[in-house]
Amino acid sequence: MSRARKRRLPLLAQAEVEPLDVDGVRALAVGTVLWLVAFLILLPFAEHLREDGREWWLATCLTGVGLGLIGLGYCVWRRSRRPSNAQESSDDEG
C-alpha cells in the first residue's frame, strides 16, 4: 500500500482563494470594449474584407459588442439585486 493510502491524505489540495469579480461586470465590460476596438480597427479595411469574402469579421465584432451590452445590462441588474456587500464588511469589522 502507498503512504498516501495509509495516512489517507488527499491527493489534491484546493487553495482558499477569494474570487476577484464575482458579478462579472468588469469582465463583460472589458470584453465588450475589446470587441468594439476590434471593429474600429477593422473598419478602415472594410473594402478589402469585402473583396476577400471576410466581411463577416465586422459582423462578428458588432455581434460581440451587442451581446456584450446585453450581458452587461443583465449583470448590472443582477448585481443590484444582490444583498449589499457594505453590510457584510461592517459585520466583519465589529
TrEMBL record:
Taxonomy, superkingdom: Bacteria
Record key words, sorted: Membrane, Transmembrane, Transmembrane helix
Ranges that cross the membrane: 27-45, 57-77
Pfam families membership: DUF2530
Name assigned to this protein: Uncharacterized protein DUF2530
Organism per entry: Thermasporomyces composti
